[in-house]
Amino acid sequence: MRSSQRNRQHNTQNQKKQREMMMININNNNRNPQQQCKNNIDFTRFISLLLFAYLIVVTECRVVPATSLIGDIKPIPLNVEHNKPTQSQNTESQNESTPTTTTTATSEQHHHQQQIFPAELNPVRKYVLRRIKSKLPFCGFEYPKTNTKKEENQNEQQGQSTGVNNSIDVTLVYASKQDLHYSDGTNTMKKPESRVNAHGRQEVYQNPIVFGTNYFLTFDLHNNTDDITTRYNITVFQDLEKLYSVTKCTHIILTENNKEEGSEGSDETSESTENVENSKENDEKSIDNNNASTDKLNILSYNIWNYNDPWNTRKDILVNVSLSIPDTIPHIILWQEVRYSEHKHINVLEEVRDKWGGGRSQAEALLKGFHNHGIDYQYVYQPAMTYLKEYPTYEMEGLAIFSLYPIVQTSHRTLSRDIHDATDEHQRICLSARIKTNLGLVDVFVTHMSLSNSAQLRNIVEIWEFMKSFDSDEKIPQFLMGDMNNKPDSLPVKFLLGEHEISGKRGDLKDLWSIYSKNKGLVCDEFGVCTNTPLQESDGYTFSTLNEKLTSRIDFVFARNVDVEKDEVLRFRDMLLIGDKALEIDKDNDGEVDKEIFASDHLGLLTQFISPKR
User: Fold this and answer.
1) Are 238 and 220 a contacting pair, CB within 8 Å?
2) Which of 321, 343, 339 is nearest to 330 (CA)?
3) CA gap 305, 601 in Å, rounded
4) Which of 135, 519, 603, 604 is a plausible cystine mate for 302, CB 3.0–4.6 Å?
5) Percent of the chain at pLDDT above 90?
């Protein structure tokens, strides 16, 4: 009895405690909502103030340390605000990259380069360092092998110590970045993004679509053995997968005359004729290392037909046919339809992707192919447009210039486009480079013209005016090459030759194939009697290898500011069509060809110039 009474009392006490706990919970739930909201707001304000204070500190950090990447050089303060691009840089890249077929995207202009902070710069800098110190040459630079301590001790014991420090010091001189945005040519494309504001509410913002970032870096590489400093201008593109690819790598030997003018982070270093002569010996040594003759100038123009299958086979054919003719190794190559794909051809080892842009970059794939033959180029790749698939999937297409000689200046012009013209759906550009060859400075221009007749008439004048903008008292020879998407009797071609007027203007260029075809048939006998049977127009056909036979000449080489037949420095010698032979595939080994693979749907045009003094 007593036991049951004690149990009832215990249960009564537990029930009382439970009721008290319930009342506490009810009181908490019924607390003043305004007071609860006030507490949340006070906490949010506190966090916001902390973030604001952090941002103030970060935005005041305007110094990017230019530390030595190799060796024990102390950090050098680099103020990005003071080292802004020069005016020559601003004219270089009106659009660093331009997307889509139906929507042609353009990026921010070059003079809108953004400040880059150390935390973001370090991964990019380390990537370039890995490229520089890898066993593979980078942009024509091969990092010298440094003896280990064991090897040094062995040399000392054998009395073979040279006492020379053969290390390379690499110092960052300039750094900036640029986010790349989609645009239809007038408006930046945006996508909705939601985030919580300071008051804890969800809000929808329209943010510009970013498809990558360009990092602009300038390095000085000092060779302690030869006491030579080389300035490298490098552009690194980072795609949405956070993978890097080098889209530009040029370099020049710094002399006493150009070291000062190139020391403020300028993207390109222009050089006078005197400076060209001062570093001529070093440049000749560089060319000799690439098995190229220094008394000739070979320029190749090639439309590579982008990623059309089988690209993995065609890239090797392109390299092989470019080197197939003895004594005509291309010193300069002007490529068209060069693509970067962030979603295709990347099933390769991480090491390969890291060192060569993997299969994503056609430019780097070709560079690797030439490297396998012992030839390493400086280069610049400039996208003109992007094929926007389904965001964030895209492919960029544009132009590229390779050179065995130093590229001392690059630039490009975005050509006008009518978004209402269905045949003018692709954005077009003209890419140029000033190159210091052994036969003197030359300006090369490459383009891939629109399919629209009206756009062609606009763009051809823009290209000619772009070429004229480089005129100077020096009369530097200029060469325009590429896929013109026009035949010799078309109005755009006639305009360039000065045979047709557009808006009161006439061009002043020469068609080198016309000159070549007239002179090629000239034959003289032992008595000096000459007969001339010019080549037929069909002998110059370059398009298309997909047909049973070539049907048209739409790839051209034009010259300006030089009399290629009488010039005392640079004289036109020869022109060759390459890529007309297919790789024959016999799958069944039955002696019958099952498939033919051409390097491209175009033939390449190889033009050779010589010094008349040779």
Assistant:
1) no
2) 321
3) 6
4) 604
5) 37
